[in-house]
C-alpha cells in the first residue's frame, strides 16, 4: 500500500525504565493496549492454566509477561498469592484498572524482578517467543528456576515451529475490521523475512477515522520442541509433559501450539 499522510512506522520501542528490554508498539500505544483483551480474550488456554494451578495446588503463582493480566486476575484469590510481572507500564496500567486487580501484586519488570519461593510460574500468550536470542531465553529460564521452590512447576506455550503459522500471516488471510473507541480499525499482517527460527513481520493498523496507519514491525522466535526441551533440561528443569493442544492432547505436526509443563 502507498504511504498515507498519517503513516507511522513503529518497531520495537524502549518503553520507559526496564534495562535491555525492547517492547513492540502493541504493548506501548495506549489505543492498542486498550484493545488487547478484545482480540485476546478468555479461551481454552485460560482454562488450561487455571486447571493446572488447581491440580498442582499452587498457593504462590508468578505470571511473567502478564500483560493486562486477564489470567493473572482470575488466578488471584483469597487463598493464593499471585504476582504479575511485565516490562510494559501501559499493559500493567490497563490491568490495574480492571476488576480483581486489587488481589494481584503487580511488578513493572522482567524475570530479573521475580520474587522467590513460588509454587508455579507461568508465561502465557506466547511470551516465550519474545526471547529472540538463546542467551536471553536461557537467562530467563534460569531466573524463573531461581524463583521457584524445589519441586515447583513452570508452564508456558509457544507456537509450534512445525505448523509454520507464519505461512498464513499475509493480508488475504489476516485482514479484519473492528469497531473501536477510535472508530473502525483495519488490521492485517505481512511477513517480512523468515530464517534461523526467527520470523519478522509487520502488523498494519489503519484507523479509518483519522487515516492514520501504524505499521508495527515485530520479531518472534520459533523454537522446535527439541530445542525447548533441551533448553529446559540444561537449565535444570525436568520436562513433565508437552501437549499439542489445550485439551492435553499429544503433539502432532498439525498442532498449532506446544504446551510445556516442567518441574524444578
Ligand atoms: C502477547 S502478550 C501476553 C500477555 C499475557 N501473558 C496474556 O496471555 O494475555 C506478551 C507480553 O510479553 C511482555 N514482554 C515483552 N518482553 C518481555 C520480557 N523480556 N520479559 C517479560 N515479558 C515481556 C509484553 O510486555 C506483553 O505484555
Automatic annotation (TrEMBL):
It comes from the Bacteria. CDD domains: AdoMet_MTases. Residues 61-152 form the Methyltransferase domain. GO terms for biological process: methylation. Residues 1-20 are annotated as: Disordered. Keywords: Methyltransferase, Transferase. GO terms for molecular function: methyltransferase activity. InterPro entries: Methyltransf_25, SAM-dependent_MTases_sf. This is Methyltransferase domain-containing protein. The lineage of its organism: Bacteria, Candidatus Eiseniibacteriota.
Amino acid at each position: 500500500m502507498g504511504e498515507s499522510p498519517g503513516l507511522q512506522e513503529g518497531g520495537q520501542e524502549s518503553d520507559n525504565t526496564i534495562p535491555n528490554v525492547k517492547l513492540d508498539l502493541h504493548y506501548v500505544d495506549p489505543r492498542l493496549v486498550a484493545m488487547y483483551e478484545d482480540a485476546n480474550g478468555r479461551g481454552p488456554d485460560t482454562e488450561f492454566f487455571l486447571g493446572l494451578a488447581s491440580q498442582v495446588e499452587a498457593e504462590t503463582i508468578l505470571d511473567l509477561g502478564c500483560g493486562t493480566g486477564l489470567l493473572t486476575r482470575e488466578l488471584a484469590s483469597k487463598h493464593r498469592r499471585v504476582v504479575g510481572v511485565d516490562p510494559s507500564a501501559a499493559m500493567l496500567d490497563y490491568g490495574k484498572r480492571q476488576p480483581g486487580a486489587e488481589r494481584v501484586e503487580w511488578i513493572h519488570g522482567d524475570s530479573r524482578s521475580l520474587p522467590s519461593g513460588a509454587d508455579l510460574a507461568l508465561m502465557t500468550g506466547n511470551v516465550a517467543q519474545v526471547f529472540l536470542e538463546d542467551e536471553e531465553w536461557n537467562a530467563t529460564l534460569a531466573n524463573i528456576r531461581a524463583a521457584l521452590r524445589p519441586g515447583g512447576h513452570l508452564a508456558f506455550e509457544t507456537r509450534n515451529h512445525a505448523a509454520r503459522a507464519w505461512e498464513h500471516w499475509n493480508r488475504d488471510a489476516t485482514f479484519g475490521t473492528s469497531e473501536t473507541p477510535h472508530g473502525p480499525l483495519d488490521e492485517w499482517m505481512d511477513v517480512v523475512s523468515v530464517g534461523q527460527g526467527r520470523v519478522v513481520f509487520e502488523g498494519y493498523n489503519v484507523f479509518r477515522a483519522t487515516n492514520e496507519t501504524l505499521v508495527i514491525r515485530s520479531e518472534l522466535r520459533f523454537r522446535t520442541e527439541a530445542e525447548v526441551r533441551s533448553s529446559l533440561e540444561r537449565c535444570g528443569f525436568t520436562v513433565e509433559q508437552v501437549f499439542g493442544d489445550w485439551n492435553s492432547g499429544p503433539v502432532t505436526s498439525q498442532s498449532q501450539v506446544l504446551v510445556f509443563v516442567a518441574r524444578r
